[in-house]
Structure formats: structure tokens, C-alpha cells
Automatic annotation (TrEMBL):
<feature type="domain" description="Partial AB-hydrolase lipase">
    <location>
        <begin position="73"/>
        <end position="127"/>
    </location>
</feature>
<keyword id="KW-0472">Membrane</keyword>
<dbReference type="Pfam" id="PF04083">
    <property type="entry name" value="Abhydro_lipase"/>
</dbReference>
<dbReference type="InterPro" id="IPR006693">
    <property type="entry name" value="AB_hydrolase_lipase"/>
</dbReference>
<feature type="transmembrane region" description="Helical">
    <location>
        <begin position="263"/>
        <end position="282"/>
    </location>
</feature>
<dbReference type="GO" id="GO:0006629">
    <property type="term" value="P:lipid metabolic process"/>
</dbReference>
<keyword id="KW-1133">Transmembrane helix</keyword>
<protein>
    <submittedName>
        <fullName>Alpha/beta-Hydrolases superfamily protein isoform 3</fullName>
    </submittedName>
</protein>
<dbReference type="InterPro" id="IPR029058">
    <property type="entry name" value="AB_hydrolase_fold"/>
</dbReference>
<keyword id="KW-0812">Transmembrane</keyword>
Length: 476
């Protein structure tokens, strides 16, 4: 309608003739106008045709919303892959969605964990060729896609939980509640399935499979927090290798905009959580509107390019495809990730102190109750507890988590004796999950392949049968 109005304003003679026609025969004019709008023609082209010139096709307004409401399940199953949804309950009552592309008899599994304002959709959004989840499955891995608390569904065992209570969590809960619950569920599922599919084989330990983790951004910070806290508690973390793509944890080298946000969150911390417990879009209509606007920008390159430039400047020049990401299915009317105030406040604390540490509850007594010390745990001081290989990957064009901050992880780990590697690629922050880069996929897969299978031994019953057979052969 806006397009038509602009057309008639810029074409006064055509508008005047339609007006005169409407005065002479109102019913005909209205009918012509309705037909003109409803049967609007849209130029289209099909890639691969011998004649790629645009052709005309009829498009009705009933199908012109231009939104994408697919779920991760829809993307996986549409491409012909198997799918399984597992609901996981954390120790503090949150219900998480652990999605899976199952290979039930595989001894190797990979767990992919997204970052802030993201979901499992990020690992499958590039289709078969460019998505880490499909690449891992095609290499023979049992693939698990984790989802942090904070999706629109906001599931909790307490059905009457208030919004303020639900969003009362920081990165601490991602690393000490969400990840442990999902990895323990993976362990439970894999152990049971392998006992059924391979009853005659046993490993020398209680874990008959190897589990690697790939994490992006805040997911990387949560994964490091998980491994360190499990080691402190002397509990098994069940991981064999970590691949961390532009991991969060150190943010003292960042843009002016992030510095302003840091001081804003620190200043308003006593008040803002009471008014705004989280940052998310609460209604289906406005979630759909954001998704539609982002997708429409692709159809209008000039406008989309302007918005892309503005958003890029807002995050310090990071060249990620911000508009393209907002148009992906996980930013749709049905499900759109949010971020709690405490998570944002936690990141501000990390940036302000220059240390990768756990959440500061604001008082000595509160910290003493949680940590047993007046100050939060400085995770960087405990990197020596990491007992598995870690692969750190940074993006030279990343202005959200700059390479210098990833190298800070590397130097601390190297100095603590961790088996760690460091690599850089010409990527921006979102390119690690939302862009198709064969070079990155090849690198990640090569790191996973370094993990060797668990040593196997024959089960007691099978060994006894073989001994009896050998004994009878000797007697004969």
C-alpha cells in the first residue's frame, strides 16, 4: 500500500485519471484498485535457468508476510537428517531443550553450545554444506545442540514463577547449572544406548564414548566455567576436547559503545533489574515484525545496507551480517532468545575488572554465602585445572571479542600448562556460526579428529566363551 501511494504521488496524471474514473463509476474504480493491489506482480529470477531474465508471477497479499517461523527441528528434518528433542531439568528447576541429530551407535559425540542472544539454530542455519552440526554428523558424530535458559518458551518446573524470578540468573547459572545438566543427560543417554548397541564391548572406564564441545562467544565462557568448577568440586566433566570460537571472558579491550554500556549497567545495577529484569521482545506480533523487517531489508539493498552500516558502527565496526542474522528463523514470532539483566551486568563486571571471574553479588556477605570468600572466583587463576586440550579461535575482523582478548585466554592457559592451541581467521564475530566458511569447518573437524576412541576390552561373558573355545581346541 505504501508503495502504491508513493507511485500515485509521483505520477499525478495517472492518479488524476484513476480519480476521474472513480467519480464516473465508483464500483469499477474500487474494483480496479483492489485487483491492482491483490494481483501485484513481483519480478523474480531462478538461478540456473538458461535465460535468467526476471519473469512476472502473481503474488497475493495473503502470502506476502515474508517471515520465517521454522524451528531447529524443521530445518534438520527438512534436510533429511534424523532429529530428537530431549528436555533437561536443571538443579534449580529450569527446563532446557537439548536437541540432537542422533547416531545412536557412535562412540564419538559432539556438544555444540551457542552464545548470547542465540540458540541451537545458529549451528544449522547455513544448511547442509556450511553448518557445523551437519558437518559433524556427516563425519560420524552423534550431535547434540544445547540451548541455554532464556528462550521465549521460558519453561520452568514452577509454572507460576514470575518473570522477575525467572530472569534472575547470570553467566554463573549457564556454566554451573545449564551445561552440567545437559552434559549429564548426554552421558546418561549415550551410556544406555551403547550398552544396547554394543553389549559385547566394554571400555576401561565408565564412559564408553568420547565427548567434544564446540562453543561460541558466551558459550565458550560458560564451558570454561563448567570445566573449572567441576574440577574444583572433583566431579567428572566428561569432555575430551574443547573448541572455543571467539570465547567471551575478557573484554577490557573493546569499543567505545561497549564501554558506555559497561558504565550504564554498573551505575543502574541497583535499580534497573526491578524495572527491566531482561531484554527480550515479549509479544509474538513484535517478534514477527522484527523478523519481517530484517528479511524485507534484503529485498531493498539500499535500506538494508544503511541499517547494516549503522549496526556495524554501533558494535565498533564489526562486519558481521547483522541484518541477515535477524532474518534467520531463530529470530521469529515463535521463539526469540533474550538476555537477562544479570548476564549483561556480569559481562559489564568482567569488562570493568579486566578479569574472567564469576558474578559479583554486590556484598561481602552474599559472596561469602556463594563462594566462601568476599570476592568472586577469578577463573583465570584456575586455568591450571583444565586437563583436556583446548583450541582457541579468534576473528581478525571481530570487534565484539577482539583477537587480543582471545590471546589473553591463550597466554594464561599456556602459562598454566594447559594443552592449548590458538588460530586466527579473517572473520567477524557472527561469521563463526552464521556464515558459510569451508576453511573454518575443515579446521574444527580436524581438531575433533585428534580425539582417539576409548580403549575397548571384551566383556566378561565373551572372553569366557573364547577361553572355553580355545580350551576345547587344545584338547582336540
Amino acid at each position: 500500500m505504501f508503495h502504491k501511494a508513493a507511485h500515485y504521488v509521483l505520477s499525478p496524471f495517472e492518479a488524476f485519471s484513476i480519480f476521474v474514473k472513480w467519480l464516473s463509476c465508483p464500483s469499477v474504480g474500487v474494483k480496479d484498485f483492489k485487483d491492482d493491489v491483490i494481483n501485484a506482480s513481483v519480478p523474480t529470477a531462478t538461478l540456473g535457468d538458461n535465460d535468467p531474465a526476471p519473469r512476472e508471477r502473481n503474488l497475493t497479499l495473503h502470502h506476502s508476510l515474508n517471515t520465517d517461523a521454522r524451528t531447529c527441528k524443521d530445518v534438520i528434518t527438512e534436510l533429511g537428517y534424523p532429529y530428537e528433542a530431549i528436555h533437561v531439568i536443571t538443579a534449580d528447576g529450569y527446563v532446557l531443550l537439548l536437541e540432537r541429530i542422533p547416531r545412536r551407535d557412535a562412540w564419538k559425540a559432539v556438544y555444540l553450545q551457542h552464545g548470547i542472544l542465540d540458540s541451537s539454530m545458529g549451528w544449522v542455519s547455513n544448511g547442509i554444506v556450511g553448518s557445523p552440526a551437519f558437518a559433524a554428523f556427516d563425519q560420524g558424530y552423534d550431535v547434540y545442540l544445547g540451548n541455554f535458559r532464556g528462550l521465549v518458551s521460558r519453561e520452568h518446573v514452577d509454572k507460576n514463577i514470575s518473570s522477575r524470578q525467572y530472569w534472575r540468573y547470570s553467566i554463573n547459572e549457564h556454566g554451573t547449572e545449564d551445561i552440567p545438566a545437559m552434559i549429564e543427560k548426554i552421558h546418561e543417554v549415550k551410556t544406555a544406548e551403547l550398552k544396547i548397541s554394543q553389549p559385547d564391548e566394554e571400555t576401561n572406564d565408565e564412559q564408553p564414548y568420547k565427548l567434544c564441545a564446540i562453543s561460541h562467544s558466551m558459550g565458550g565462557a560458560g564451558m570454561l566455567m563448567y570445566v573449572i568448577t567441576r574440577r574444583i568440586e572433583e566431579k567428572p566433566h566428561r569432555l575430551s576436547r574443547l573448541v572455543l570460537l571467539s570465547p567471551a571472558g575478557f573484554h577490557d579491550d573493546s569499543t567505545f559503545v561497549f564501554t558506555m554500556m559497561e558504565y550504564l549497567f554498573l551505575l543502574l545495577a541497583p535499580i534497573l533489574p526491578l524495572l527491566v529484569p531482561a531484554f527480550y521482545i515479549p509479544t509474538r506480533f513484535f517478534r514477527m515484525l522484527l523478523n519481517k523487517l530484517a528479511r524485507d531489508f534484503h529485498n531493498y539493498p539500499a535500506v538494508g545496507g544503511l541499517v547494516q552500516t549503522l549496526m556495524s558502527y554501533f558494535v565498533g565496526g564489526d562486519s558481521s551480517n547483522w541484518i541477515g542474522v535477524l532474518g534467520l528463523p531463530h529470530y521469529n514470532m515463535n521463539d526469540m532468545p533474550g538476555v537477562s539483566f544479570r548476564v549483561a551486568h556480569h559481562l559489564a563486571q568482567i569488562k570493568h575488572t579486566g578479569k574472567f571471574r564469576m558474578y559479583d553479588y554486590g556484598s561481602t556477605s552474599a559472596n561469602m554465602e556463594v563462594y566462601g570468600s568476599p570476592e568472586p572466583l577469578d577463573l583465570g587463576e584456575y586455568y591450571g585445572l583444565i586437563d583436556i586440550p583446548v583450541d582457541l579461535v579468534a576473528g581478525r575482523k571481530d570487534q565484539v571479542i577482539r583477537p587480543r582478548m582471545v590471546r589473553k585466554h591463550y597466554k594464561l592457559m599456556k602459562g598454566s600448562g594447559v594443552d592449548v592451541s590458538y588460530s586466527e581467521f579473517e572473520y567477524a564475530h557472527l561469521d563463526f556460526t552464521f556464515s558459510h566458511h569451508e576453511e573454518l569447518l575443515a579446521y574444527v573437524m580436524s581438531r575433533l579428529l585428534l580425539v582417539e576412541p576409548a580403549p575397548k576390552r571384551q566383556s566378561g561373558q565373551k572372553a569366557l566363551r573364547l577361553k572355553r573355545k580355545d580350551w576345547r581346541t587344545l584338547n582336540c
